[in-house]
Write a structure and sequence with these properties.
The protein contains 11 helices and 12 strands. The protein is globular, with a radius of gyration of 19 Å. The chain has one domain (about 1-270, about 290-295): outer membrane lipoprotein receptor (LolB), chain A (Clam), CATH 2.50.20.20. By secondary structure, it is an alpha+beta fold. It is about 25% helix and about 35% strand. β1 and β2 (about 70-75) form a beta hairpin. It has a 12-stranded mixed β-sheet.
């Protein structure tokens, strides 16, 4: 059902959108110089201490009467492997979703602390999942690849590589092929050059450092399973310091139900450098997903 994908699955997509520094779709002259420029940006951007970003998301589907729009932002510190994201999704007048969530707006938060992710669910969803005992935050230890029954969409979150390390998507630029320069543009007051390319996901593991190869293989498998895609067309804006300043991509999925889902994402990387460590949610407001998948019917909390 589409609604299931618009719960935690939608937030997982935003995790991707907030950090998917890939590259784009379009025309103009293709050259090895352009390809080298994009590859260089992948190395430079992933070697920074961290970054802040803003993003917009548009979700359309044959099952919806109108598109769903979202905005959000966050920060990620590469050195500490930590960060936080916030998502506000305007659901419009879709009665099916509004009935479940109790509102036309979905607000979600995510905190990343190394291999642990905390996701804050809306009250309307929390109250519908008895195993959460009214606690708004769920905790997922990606090192354990926890997947708990009774928490809709948790597998989408676990299988989403952006949840564990948003910066790894910047590395995917190393696998950019058929790159073409497509003019220049000022992005948030910074002069940039725009490039279009297509990322072949199957090539990504061989393009990243050997130490990241196994995680990249798992990440690609997760993306392909989530989106049913092997090629990702993207557009990337790169400044004079070889830093990615904006990226844009479109994902078109065909679900087994016969429905289609179209996702359009724009991410602005507005500031590079060290980022403050996020505040973890109070332990008495957290349910550890591993406790739900283990002991019979028990739910636990952890900070």
């Amino acid at each position: 059902m589409l609604l299931g994908r618009l719960k935690i699955g939608a937030f997982a997509t935003v995790g991707v959108c907030a950090t998917v520094a890939l590259a784009g779709c379009g025309s103009s002259s293709s050259s090895s110089a352009s390809s080298n420029k994009v590859t260089r940006a992948a190395f430079v951007s992933t070697n920074t201490a961290g970054y802040q970003m803003h993003f917009t998301l548009r979700l359309g589907s044959s099952a919806l009467s109108q598109a769903i729009n979202a905005t959000g932002g966050g920060a990620f510190d590469v050195r500490d492997h930590s960060g936080a994201l916030v998502l506000d999704m305007n659901l419009g007048s879709s009665p099916q979703i509004t009935q479940v969530l109790g509102s036309s707006t979905l607000h979600m938060e995510e905190v990343i602390n190394r291999t642990t992710i905390y996701v804050k669910l809306p009250d309307a969803l929390t109250s519908k999942i008895p195993s959460l005992s009214g606690k708004p935050w769920i905790k997922v230890d990606l090192a354990q690849a926890a997947s708990a029954a009774g928490v809709p969409g948790i597998s989408s979150l676990v299988n989403n590589p952006a949840s564990s390390d948003p910066s790894q998507f910047l590395q995917y630029l190393r696998a950019a092929g058929t790159v073409s320069q497509d003019g220049s543009e000022v992005v948030n007051g910074i002069q940039t050059t725009r490039y279009k390319a297509t990322i072949s996901l199957d090539r990504v593991p061989d393009a990243v450092p050997s130490a990241s190869r196994s995680s990249a293989q798992a990440a690609v498998k997760g993306i392909e399973k989530l989106t049913n895609l092997h090629q990702v067309p993207v557009v990337v804006w790169i400044d004079d310091h070889n830093l990615v300043r904006r990226l844009q991509l479109s994902l078109n999925e065909s679900l087994q139900t016969g429905q289609t889902v179209n996702t359009q994402i724009t991410v602005d990387l507005v500031k590079y450098g060290p980022q403050p460590k996020p505040t973890l949610p109070p332990s008495d407001q957290v349910t550890d997903v591993s406790s739900l998948s283990g002991a019979a019917g028990s739910s636990g909390s952890s900070g």
